[in-house]
Specification:
Order of helices and strands: EEHEEEH
Strand content: over 45%
Number of helices: 2
Mean pLDDT: 92
Number of strands: 5
Helix content: 10-25%
Structural class: alpha+beta
Largest sheet: 5 strands, antiparallel
Number of domains: 1
Amino acid sequence: MKEKKLWYVITCLHKHVQLNEESTYLVRMVDDLGTARELMQSIYDDAEKGITGKHGVKYSDPKWLDEKHLKLQITSDININGWLHSTTTEIYQLSDDWNSNIFSNTSWILD
């Protein structure tokens, strides 16, 4: 029997302001809660400092959306050559799931 192990998953809901479009994607999977919480806090800290990422995206306005610090909203802005501007709202969420669901090879999702 395969051992079930709990994984901590960080996902991002990406809301593009100008295009009014949304997408969701997996950001990270880690095997311990401490590391997952550190990653969430690092997102908050970087946005609070207003850092600019490696692709020229400036992060700002961090807001915890819950008391347990499992859901975090930030804003990201990019200007390209002064003529193209893009703003997104990103909502990061930390959750957990058993590896039997995350790494399942079954042909269905809902059970």
